[in-house]
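<discrete_fold_record>
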Amino acid sequence: MTVERPSYDLTIFKVHCGKLALKIYSKGERVLRAEAMARNVEALKCGRSLERLPRMVRGLKAILERFLDALSCMDRCFVSGMRFEDLPESSIVGGARVAGVDFNRARTWQGARAVLALSATSDGFSASAFANHVRRQTTASPQDYGPRQAAYDLKKFRGKNMIRFVGKSRRYEPTPQGLRVMSALVVLRERVVEPLTRGIVNLEAIEPAINPTSLDQRYQRIREQMREVFRELGLAA
């Protein structure tokens, strides 16, 4: 993914998917335009002749709609309708029992981040692509974490209806519910719990921001209140 700022207050987000690309143009807090492009129409797998142009356009439209649906799910994420303690429980997938999804394990968080990152791909993602993304978050080698281990982790996500196969292929895509749940959990951990706990433990060492945003100011107030709560509860920071 690349971010371009060709002029004042205009930002272009570009997601590269092989020979395809997705772009969003935004200005301030408004989205001006979203588009899908094919640098090589062979990636659409519908031929290259001019009479196939309607099929190419329909293919690009479907890719763009899929991309926007994924962004919508991650923008309005939630965890309602699911008990967090049920996730580590085992599931049945195709008649076989598989382990649950334990978000207390680092490998599960790495897998969730990989699913979120690959959710915008045009035609789903493979177990190999998933494994590559997980390895980029760690120092694991292809021998330590390859497509076989990735397929097992993906099967656990399938057991919780967080991902599914794309049609009859062996490629994967997240479900809308799965995207919302994983997005919410990642945001809660990385943007709420970890920043707050770091601030509570080492509040005095935090240097105030030069130009604090409204979010920075909210974090600071919450950190101070949580420190008071910990003190009332007798918890040592």
In short: Strands lie at 2-7, 10-17, 20-27, 30-38, 91-93, 96-98, 163-165, 172-174. The chain has six helices and eight strands.
